[in-house]
Amino acid sequence: MSGSIVRDAAAVAAPATDPAGQRGDPAAGADAAGTAPARIGPEIAAALAIHQAPATVIDTELSQMRDCRFGPTANRSVVGIMNEFAYLADVYRHSDPSRSLAELGRKLAETPCSPLYGRHVRPDRELEAFLHLIQRPDS
Questions:
Q1: Contact, 26 vs 16, CB < 8 A?
Q2: What distance lies between CA 73 and its chain's CA centroid?
Q3: Over the stretch 91-132, which tens digit does the pLDDT of each residue have?
Q4: Shortest CA distance to 74 belongs to which of 16, 9, 26, 6?
Q5: How far is the C-alpha of 87 from the C-alpha of 82, rounded, in Å?
Q6: What is the C-alpha to C-alpha distance for residues 135 and 139, in angstroms, rounded to an integer?
Q7: pTM, entire model
Q8: Could you give the CA distance from residue 87 to residue 74 in angstroms, rounded to a whole number?
Q9: Whole-angstrom Cα Rg for the chain
Q10: Domain ranges (residues) in the chain
Q11: Cβ neighbours of residue 30 closer than 8 Å, sequence gap 6 or more
Q12: Which of 28, 33, 87, 126 could make an S-S bridge to 120, C-beta 3.0–4.6 Å?
């Protein structure tokens, strides 16, 4: 299994607003982006755990992410999808301010996503199918 769950820097871009919904200081966003390599592994591990990934899968992903690098993406679809997810996150957050980040992530994972239309349509279903595939005894 590859440690490439996050393939583009756009996936970990700093939020445009702070948790209170206010526009943040651009320098704060730069600080958040600067600490992304240290934060990304534990955040992905937590997201995988929320989606009931086995500990062995999470540990393998974490070991594959030890050498973490980010760069620009040439894929405009990735940027478009990330912008849509950021917009939806804002809408969900404003509709229920008490929602935790984990709950927000779970809600976003239920969102249909055009790159997945030919397979499992939603990120949570894609992850479930992937986990099933890698856990088959014959794989």
A1: no
A2: 16
A3: 999 999 999 888 898 899 998 988 888 888 999 999 899 988
A4: 9
A5: 9
A6: 7
A7: 0.63
A8: 21
A9: 16
A10: 9-135
A11: 14
A12: 126
Q: pLDDT tens digits, residue range 70-92?
A: 788 888 888 888 899 999 999 99
Strand, helix or coil at 67? coil
**Please, what sign has the CA dihedral across residues 42, 43, 48, 51?**
positive
Nearest to 61 by CA among 73, 47, 74, 75: 47
Give the position of tokens 């992850």: 127
- Per the CB < 8 A criterion, the answer to whether 64 and 1 are in contact is yes
Residue 60: how many CB atoms within 10 A of its CB?
A: 16
Q: DSSP labels for 71-114?
A: ---S-HHHHHHHHHHHHHHHHHHHH-TT--HHHHHHHHHTS--G
Q: How far apart are CA 126 and CA 13, in angstroms?
A: 22
CB 17 within 8 A of CB 86: no
Both tokens of residue 67? 């050498």
